[in-house]
From TrEMBL:
CDD domains: HMA
Name listed for the protein in its UniProt record: HMA domain-containing protein
PANTHER family the record matches: COPPER TRANSPORT PROTEIN ATOX1-RELATED, COPPER TRANSPORT PROTEIN ATX1
A single GO molecular function term of this UniProt record: metal ion binding
InterPro entries linked to this entry: HMA_dom (IPR006121), HMA_dom_sf (IPR036163)
Top-level taxon: Eukaryota
Swiss-Prot/TrEMBL keywords: Metal-binding
Metal-binding among keywords: yes
Length: 131
């Protein structure tokens, strides 16, 4: 009778599952039209760890909720030929060039008029950001 003892739950080793905290990541992205928004939504929904995506076409804002890292989102958006940078209410596109460089994109800075600069991603001239 005593030899048929069940193992206690404490005796069994259960694999530990790492639970990542959920984050809200806000990015400034050049959203020119509904097609731009759709391309970003389509791309980001395929990423593991993304649970929600909100876009604001008028503000050029993309908000991603989930366990995914910001640099992964910026890189994924960069592959679409878009420049993503952290959202700040007074965000200037000065850092657009830095974001493009961080995403590994080739770009040029053009100054067509004094005080107005554009960051143009090479091979994708329709994707630019004002500086």
């Amino acid at each position: 009778m005593g030899s048929d003892k069940k193992k206690k739950d404490g005796d069994k080793k259960k694999p530990e599952i790492e639970v990542k905290p959920t984050k809200v990541i806000e990015l400034k992205v050049g959203l020119h039209c509904k097609k731009c928004v759709q391309k970003i939504l389509s791309s980001l929904t395929q990423m593991r760890g993304v649970s929600r995506i909100d876009t604001d076409l008028e503000k050029n804002k993309v908000t991603v909720t989930g366990t995914v890292e910001e640099k992964e989102i910026v890189k994924k958006i960069g592959k679409l030929g878009k420049i993503a940078e952290p959202w700040k209410e007074s965000s200037k596109s000065k850092s657009a060039a830095a974001s493009a460089a961080a995403a590994g994109l080739k770009f040029t800075i053009k100054e067509d008029q004094p005080g107005i600069k554009l960051v143009v991603v090479k091979d994708q001239p329709s994707n630019c950001a004002l500086m």
